[in-house]
Structures are given as C-alpha cells and as structure tokens.
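Exercise 7.
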Amino acid sequence: MEVIIAIFIMIVGIGGTLVVLQRGISSITQARARLTAAYLAQEGIEIIRNIRDTNWVEQRIASTTPWDAELNEGEYEADYEDTKNETPSLTPCDFPCDYNRLRFLKKNEEGFYSYNTGTLTPFKRKISIEKPSTSTLKVTVTVYWGEGKHSLRTQEILYNWR
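Solution. The predicted structure, written as tokens, is:
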C-alpha cells in the first residue's frame, strides 16, 4: 500500500512539473511573438516617417514636392524591400482591409521581414494613415499573428514641423 501511495505522489509531482513547463514554454513563445510584433509595428511607423523625410529632402531640391506626397489617407502594406528605390512605397490594401485581405510577411536568411522573399511567418501588418489637419498625419500600425487571434497596435502623430 505504501508503494502505491509513493507511486501516486511521484506521478502527481511529475505531472504537475510537466504542466508548469508547458505553460512556461507557451508564455515564452507568446512573449517572443509579441516582441516581434512590436518591432514590426515600429518599423511600419518608420516607413511612413522615411517617406515624409524623403519628401522634405526633395522639397529642398524641387520646391514642388509636398511634405505628404504619397501619404494619402487609407490603409496600406509596406516594407523596405517592396521597391528598388531608396524610399519604400505603399501598397494600398483592398477594402475592407482586414486580416483576411492582408499578406503574410516573410523572413529571409538575414532575419529581415518583407513580402517578397523568405519563409512565411505568422505576421501580417496594416498601416493606416489619417489626416486630421493639413500639417498632421495620424499613423496607426496593427500587426496580427496567430491566425488573427492576437494583434498589437501602435499609433503616432507625424507633423510637418519644417
């Protein structure tokens, strides 16, 4: 009888340990995905900032380029590899621009994300631009993963401060 009780206690202990390990691994996986999503969201903001800043440089050269050229209100996909130019271009997203209409990002051998080359990842990114005023852009970037069950959204206001 003592042996049976000892075996039962060992099985319960091992089972509990396995459950704790499984939850720990799951938490680590989710934290990793959330961190990647945060970086992809920040990159989305940087893409729009890059286009704005390039417009400023072109405005100094040829005063006809407005600061918000190519930054029209709408929902877009964009990455740095979508274009051979130095400035990224925006690809409009079909309306309604929801999880099902967005493309999956791919990760290449160097660890960079794009829509063109690499292995598929679970991440999709949507960049939304609103113009509350003539000198302001409201940029919202949403990154989805886990078949759309998880998302991370970041927002920034960009100004024509020059």
